[in-house]
Design goal:
Layout lengths: L1 E6 L7 H15 L3 E6 L13 H5 L7 H9 L4 E9 L2 E2 L1 H14 L8 E7 L4 H14 L12 E3 L3 H6 L1 H26 L18
Parallel strand pairs: 1-2, 1-3, 3-5, 5-6
Antiparallel strand pairs: 3-4
Length: about 210
């Protein structure tokens, strides 16, 4: 079993990375492999609603989004991490998740996911709410911890002193590992996936 952890910060080894590393270390102790995927610092365009991905399975912009979607197929769980910018996730991470879930959403069905955020002080719960909405639409079980999934600090050294935040990350890692093991055990004894209905789309125009 493998978990892919996504670093949505412009700083490859900053506060978000520090939090994700704590999750990764806990997953390793639980016998779960993991990798950290950095979205990078190159410009990431937002979705332009061109519909290209519906026909090709790939976003028309060939960048880290397509690389991630290709990798995601072989992973069993996901942890998306972002710094808090203006009480929301980073702009690059917003563009990244918009396009990932629109072009590659079929890769995530019933795979567990979690969001984590890092902030100097505030805006964390708003950013978490924003990120969790992607998981709802993709029908991904959301993994929780012993508190909201956040760490605080302006630099990695600060996060290393956030002992409650690091405990939250460790608990999240253990909860993710437990869920994956339960899912695997269920599959081994023949627990079927839930029935899927044809999607119904409506609007509010009468």
């Amino acid at each position: 079993m493998k978990v892919l952890l996504i670093n949505g910060s412009p700083h490859q080894h900053g506060c978000t990375y520090t939090a994700l590393s704590e999750v990764a270390a806990t997953l390793k102790k639980e016998g779960i492999e993991s990798e950290i995927f950095w979205i990078g610092i190159k410009p990431l365009a937002g979705c332009i609603a061109c519909g290209n991905c519906r026909n090709t399975g790939r976003c028309i912009f060939d960048d880290s989004v397509n690389e991630f979607v290709n990798n995601a197929k072989s992973f069993d769980g996901f942890v998306f991490g972002s710094p808090v910018h203006y009480a929301a996730m980073s702009g690059a991470m917003t563009s990244f998740m918009d396009r990932v879930f629109y072009s590659g959403g079929s890769n995530f069905y019933l795979k567990p996911a979690a969001a984590i955020v890092s902030a100097r002080r505030a805006g964390t719960t708003a950013a978490l709410d924003q990120m969790n909405k992607y998981f709802y639409l993709a029908q991904m079980p959301i993994i929780s911890s012993c508190y909201w999934n956040m760490v605080h600090g302006s630099k990695p050294e600060d996060v290393a002193q956030d002992i409650e935040g690091l405990q939250i990350m460790r608990t999240l890692g253990r909860n993710m590992a437990w869920f994956l093991k339960c899912k695997e055990a269920g599959a081994k004894i023949g627990v079927d996936m839930p029935e899927r209905e044809q999607r119904i789309y409506t609007n509010f125009i009468r």
